[in-house]
Amino acid sequence: RTPGLSLEVGGGGTEAHGQFTLDGKPVRPASYPDLALLLDIAVLCSNAAVSPIGQDGAQLRLEGEPTEAALLVLAAKAGIWRSARPYRPGKEVPFDSTRKMMSLGVRREDGQAFLFCKGAPDLLLDRCTHYLENSHTRPLSPAMRKKILQWNDQMAAQALRVLGFAFRKAGSEGDVAEQNLVFVGLAGMIDPPRPEVLEAGRKCRQAGIRPVMITGDHAITARAIAGDLGICPPQGRVVTGKELDAMSDDQLARQIAEIPVFARVTPAHKLRIVRALKRQGNVVAMTGDGVNDAPALKRAQVGIA
Q1: C-alpha span between 40 and 75 (Å, rounded)
Q2: Average pLDDT score, the chain
Q3: Cβ contact 120:100 at 8 Å
């Protein structure tokens, strides 16, 4: 999704080919410069890799973080491969759980330098002063900012994980100040829960275990997925990291029994959640798949890494 364009992309998760459609009609991605720039940012702001499998190259081998790999698959469906792009990479500012974005300085073959950024749309938008529409850079008005956030919410409500993309001209490929950015667009992808997760949740509840979802995703995405899994009822409460920051430890401990979903959290928030659950007399099992989860895994009675 760009400010001037809303596209859908077909093809499975590892398929090298997929049809781009606009209002249900097939289109050529190369016909839209704003889309091409979004995909350039997506493939360059990534440490994942994809490569064709077999002689026909119809399927792709994915390596690295799944979300980044999905973006590379998206670009491949448009015929865009990182190795063929006219940019030389420079300094990188890696993703972290506080900024929820990553940036890369690049230099184009004609000598012009840019900063490319991808990240959580709401946080990325806070760093933007302009937006791109049909190759024209326009000031980001409050009304346009609100519209972009509405697009993000609409995509998130479909249980899509949404990322935002932005850029700015830079003095060099080492100029990586994440400010005065130009918003380019959004990309949404589905990260469906494995089929056995629904049954696992049912067995947990049957055994007297209350599942709680803790995620870095947008609150609306988290609610949609948690609803599908039976973790969050339609009117269930979803608490964000920002709301957690405004709560004291006492307030959190009193309310935590009524909160099935936490969204947009950091590793520090996970630790607070575990402490609050234990404080209420619960035996807590915590799952995690990254080094940042280690403090919460260690604090829980059962740490599942």
Answers
A1: 8
A2: 93
A3: yes
pLDDT tens profile 194-222: 889 999 999 999 999 999 999 988 999 99
- Nearest Cα to 171, choosing from 103, 242, 106? 106
The string of pLDDT tens digits covering residues 23-55 is: 889 999 989 999 999 999 999 999 999 999 877
Q: First and final CA of the chain: distance in angstroms?
A: 36
How many Cα atoms occupy the beta-carbon half-sphere of 242 within 13 Å?
Answer: 6
Reduce the DSSP state of residue 170 to 3 states and report it.
strand
The full length of the chain comes to: 305
**Residue 163 contacts residue 187 (beta carbons within 8 Å):** yes
Report DSSP state, residue 292: G
Long-range own/partner contacts, residues 27-35 (CB < 8 A, 24 or more apart): 29/77, 29/78, 29/79, 29/80, 30/78, 30/79, 32/2, 32/5, 33/135, 34/2, 34/3, 34/4, 34/5, 34/132, 34/133, 34/134, 34/135, 34/184, 34/185, 35/2, 35/5, 35/7, 35/78, 35/185
pTM: 0.84
Query: What are the φ and ψ backbone dihedral angles of 243, each rounded to 5 degrees?
Result: -70, -35
3-state secondary structure 50-108: EEEECCCCCEEEEECCHHHHHHHHHHHHCCCCHHHCCEEEEEEECCCCCCCEEEEEEEE
| Distance in angstroms (rounded) separating the CA atoms of residues 297 and 294 | 5
CB neighbour list of residue 142: distance below 8 Å, 6 or more residues apart? none
